[in-house]
Amino acid sequence: MTFTNWAGNQSITPAETRTPRSPAEVAEAVTDAKRQGRTVRMIGTGHSFTGVALTDGIMLRPEGLSGVLSFGDDIVTVAAGTPIHRLNVELDRRGLALANMGDITLQTVAGAVQTGTHGSGRAVGGLADQVAALDLVLADGSTATVAEGDLFDAARVGLGALGVVTAVTFRVEPAFLLRNQRSPMRFDEILEALDTLTLENEHLDFFWLPHTDLCLVKRNNRADGEQFAPGRIRTWIDDVFVENTLFGVANRVGARFPSIIPPVNRLSGMVLGTSESSDTAYKVFTSVREVRFLETEWAIPRRHLADALREVRALMERSPWRISFPVEVRVTPPSTAWLSTAYDRDSAYIACHVYRRTPNPGYFAAVEEVMTGLGGRPHWGKLHNADAAYLSQVYPRFTDFVALRNRLDPDRLFANAYLDRVLGA
Questions:
Q1: Interatomic CA distance for residues 353 and 10, integer angstroms
Q2: pLDDT at residue 79, rounded to an integer
Q3: What is the pLDDT of residues 348-358, one digit of tens each?
Q4: Which residues lie across from 349 on neighbouring strands?
Q5: Which residues lie below 8 Å from residue 318, measured CB to CB, with a gap of 6+?
Q6: In Å, what is the CA distance from 355 to each residue of 44, 107, 141?
Q7: Which residues lie across from 326 on neighbouring strands?
């Protein structure tokens, strides 16, 4: 059965597909793959734009490893294939929550953790930084639970290269509300206020509309009191109709008539308004994304963010491209996971998207050139051309990760073409 990812840009037909329902069945698949001389990998829900999950050997589907395995006062252990949206609901039922997360909830917890999924946070990092333990099946068929040490720090963003994750234990905390404030700002205005905005807000996220001077700024901060919202109709208009239905129509028309994209973006910027709401944290962190796209995203040292954005704007101004999707910017604190894009440095993320039906490799390549010039690290699940030679220069523990991989998986049971490129064959 052919596997195709969400964006439709990656597909493969494995030699065999299995849906294990226990760590023992995962171990059996690993042992069988080794005996047959095949590779073996566990896929997620296909939200990576790279080939990180692919295998032409034994492909393990995640559906059989799903659900909450145990709860504690401040931790929860979930099976690897549990979708994030299901985890959010189960936590909320018990008055608990993750401290931070990305904006896509369809991902499996293991897939999100292994590729370094992050949100935006002044003091709280991505999912890998909230992991307390990982359950793994190693290349020799043995199982291991790691909660500290080198394997733990390497495997939290392990790309599936060190073993198959079968369960993830997260640190959690009492459920909380987030107050979401949205407002438009000018491009230069936001660059001048970056330090203040980052320091004053627990979670800062903003979007720049290409071919305009306008940004939409989202400030999320913990709130006391009761939930409130603009109203169900207003929420539907903003989150469903404008951001998905109308945006989808604009992209389909723009794909046929690219010249309309700049004026449409300018019109979109003119109707940006302010709004405020307060809701359960996971509902504020996450978004619905129905218009399918391709994406590249780079983590750079936080201090270079303003310069990087100016360079991206300049390359758009001198190019013939017509970019309909906003450029998204987020920030995170340093991480201790070896291959986290935020490892050992305050980081800013610049994410560039294009409509799936109008790929633009030139745009992504030019953005990549800007980001690599600033020591950028590409998101493992998003499109890039970086290889092991480059990545070894921007990850201080890259050589240690590769050495650990050599020891744990010398026969490259968990390898694929993507890992050969980014980690070395």
A1: 16
A2: 98
A3: 999 999 999 99
A4: 299, 330
A5: none
A6: 23, 20, 42
A7: none
Closest by CA to 178, choosing from 281, 283, 89, 98, is 281
The pLDDT tens digits for 131-178 are 999 999 999 999 999 999 999 999 999 999 999 999 999 999 999 999
Mean pLDDT value across residues 56-79: 97
331 neighbors 302 (Cβ within 8 angstroms)? yes
Tokens of 152: 């733990």
Q: Which two tokens stand for residue 374?
A: 């600033």
Do the beta carbons of residue 178 and residue 281 sit within 8 Å?
Answer: yes
- What would the pLDDT profile of 246-262 be if each residue is shown by its tens digit? 788 888 988 899 999 99
Q: b vs e for 332-370, b when ≥16 Cβ sit within 10 Å of the residue's Cβ?
A: bbebebbbbbbbebebbbbbbbbbbebebeebbebbbeb
Single-letter residue type at 42 = M
Beta strands in 158-261 (DSSP E): 164-171, 173-174, 177-186, 203-208, 214-223
225: left (phi over 0), alpha (psi -120 to 50) or beta: left
Token pair belonging to 95: 């008055």
Which of helix, strand or coil describes residue 353? Answer: strand
